[in-house]
Amino acid sequence: QSVLAQPPSTSGTPGQRVTISCSGSTSNIGSKTVNWYQQFPGTAPKLLIYSNNQRPSGVPDRFSGSKSGTSASLAISGLQSEDEADYHCAAWDDSLKGVVFGGGTKLTVL
Amino acid sequence: EVQLVQSGAEVKKPGESLRISCKGSGYIFSNYWINWVRQMPGKGLEWMGRIDPSDSYAIYSPSFQGHVTISTDKSISAAYLQWSSLKASDTAIYYCARLNLLPDYWGQGTQVTVSS
Q1: pLDDT at residue B28 above 90?
Q2: Gap from B90 CA to chain A (nearest CA, Å)
């Protein structure tokens, strides 16, 4: 059971906007920043969003992040077939003194 | 360019020992903690622990404390994850990741298979 809660799966059609939620607590998301990672099958996770809503160089602006209270969200607009991947959220946890992850959300583009 | 390069896939028997490595380049290795993350087949990411290469101080997740050891050799910009006695349940992909508040750069992963 992961510390951060994500839906196991979601789907959308090309061009649609989808959101993925990530729920935590006051010891992690409520007091710390959130990162999002994109992972394709057989490859390592790649940083997609850092510090709640910042995109690393090279990440399309179709990807955006937000945080409110003890929850965070990843939004993908203008969905494309190449966005089909697993998406993981992460935050530092003050109680654990380590990183906590969500269980990952598998995005299917129909 | 920041890179973390991990050692290759391993196939081991239960009870055997193992050490896998993660070598950093393109940045000052001692300035960033290195984390180890497990991903079991078809599952999510699990934080195992982290080490500060500047002083080799390591912190472990309670789920992994006592079962693995994280170490580092800053002279060659390398971090290690080792087991003294592997179990079949250790079969997974293990990633190292640089910590910049949270993981930013990741190694390519090391597949560890434990089977009799």
Answers
A1: yes
A2: 17
